[in-house]
Amino acid sequence: MAMNPSGAMQPLAGLRLVEACEAARREPALLRPLTLLAAAWPGCERDRLLDQPLAERNRALLALRALSFGPVLEGYAECAACGAPMTFHLAVKDALASLDACAASVPDDAAWRVREATTADLLAASRMPDDEAAERELLRRCLVESATNAKNEVTTATPAALAEFERIHAAAELHCALTCPQCGHAAHHELDLADFVWREARHAARRLLADIHTLALHYGWSEAAIAAMSQARRDAYLELLDA
User: What backbone phi and psi angles, to 5 degrees, belong to 81?
Assistant: First the structure.
């Protein structure tokens, strides 16, 4: 389901950032990226985001990340072979290109026709008692009846349905190829984009609150006035206090 908000996406900054993170912190992890998007996307109702396909949601998160925190993703991983720390840098435009390259339409003659999963589907699956039941529920919700298969057959055709599900959802996944600088081990690391953007937003909000505390304490300015400043302006005042 394509989203067509009436307003342009706005960066997560100032009090918008703080308030969005406060709201997201009280929610399950699956809902946090939607809360961030809704805060930055005027005209886009949060409930409608629940029905947004995951690949489309991830593209929106990448756009929000670039707008709010810059065009390059900077992350950290541990080598699976020796445990050494590794850092990576990935341009948002390259991440978007990677997602687009993986996107594929479902053939008309596919034995199992599957639609893209949404956050609403993931929430429903997360309420199941175990992983196997969650997988069945997710497949049941995403399976579309075709001429040869009905939705109620998913319990006896899980391998075929799961294969088609994984194929169509390749466009929602983002992987980084990393080589360990210590042992040379090479591997692909899956990047959980929703969690990645949430952690960045939470860190930025904490830094902003720390700046507000320091500047308000020394200058007596209001929270709104300090939050409305650019980060460069706040940094300049903080440098003067340290001088």
Answer: -90, -45
Q: Per 3-state DSSP, what percentage of the chain is helix, strand, and coil (rounded to 5)?
A: 60, 10, 30
Q: Please write the tens of the pLDDT for every residue from 192-215.
A: 999 999 999 999 999 999 999 999
Pairing relation of β-strands 113-114 and 175-179? unpaired
**Ramachandran category for residue 178: left, alpha or beta (phi over 0 → left; psi -120 to 50 → alpha):** beta
3-state secondary structure the chain: CCCCCCCCCCCCCHHHHHHHHHHHHCCCHHHHHHHHHHHHCCCCCHHHHCCCEHHHHHHHHHHHHHHHHCCEEEEEEECCCCCCEEEEEEEHHHHHHHHHHHCCCCCCCCCCEECCCEHHHHHHHHCCCCHHHHHHHHHHHHEECCCCCCHHHHHHCHHHHHHHHHHHHHHHCCEEEEECCCCCCEEEEECCHHHHHHHHHHHHHHHHHHHHHHHHHHHCCCHHHHHHCCHHHHHHHHHHHHC
Which residue type is seen at 84? A
pTM > 0.70 = yes
The single-letter code of the amino acid at 75 is: G
Helices (DSSP H) in 143-192: which residue ranges? Answer: 158-168
Burial class (CB in 10 A: 0-12, 13-18, 19+), 240: exposed
**Ranges under pLDDT 50 in the chain:** 1, 105-106, 109, 147, 156
DSSP 3-state of 16: helix
Q: Please, what is the average pLDDT of the chain?
A: 87
Q: What is the pLDDT of residue 164?
A: 76
